[in-house]
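Follow-up to my post from last week.
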Amino acid sequence: MTNKPLRIALTKGRLEKDTVSLFEKLGFDCTAVREKGRRLILPIPDGNMEVVLAKAADVITYVEHGVCDIGVVGKDTIIEMEGKFFELCDLGFGRCRFALAAKKGTDFYSGFGVKTIATKYPNVARKFFESKNMDVDIVKIEGSVELAPLLELADGIVDIVETGVTLRENGLEVVEYVVPISARLIVNTVSLKLRQQEIEELVSRIEEALKNNDRA
Ligand code: PRP
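User reply:
Got it. Predicted complex:
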């Protein structure tokens, strides 16, 4: 039995806040994470855990390489990156959808020319259009993908839609929803074997708390 803290890679930002609230519901003291300042590795001493704050794609990298045992990351990044790890549970928060969107009032599927699609998620976009047997040019954009059709770089975008406000305020609309997304708990394959009991206990406490949320 090891005493090393269980290391959890946590996606910075929205998922971080929801995960901290969940852990507090489980009774863990997350003061260090709440008062982190610029620190990136924070202890949760009463849970023998350590939180590592990272960008979504890096959460997967750290978990895959086994330098973090567990990760909290959006299904969007999981679908985009794939990789070797286990997905243990749906945390229920961070809900949004992948969607194909285009300028309002345009008929995206009309015409015969090859369409250009801007996206932060080229693999998701490629698979989506492959499933339709549709040939498209994909342009990778790093942020605010909604700009691409406005600047006439792309005919459409494949991106995350949560409230729909960003699309609406920029004169775009959903053409088709691709897949629903939410935050997932992932685990390194070796950690799951070596620390099975601790991880399973944490997961069952999380699942219990989520069930209670649903009932509330
Ligand atoms: C995401 C996404 C959309 C926006 C959708 O961007 O890429 O731009 O949120 O949310 P809404 O439907 O509620 O308006 P994010 O805020 O992660 O920023 P980014 O574009 O800089 O990645």
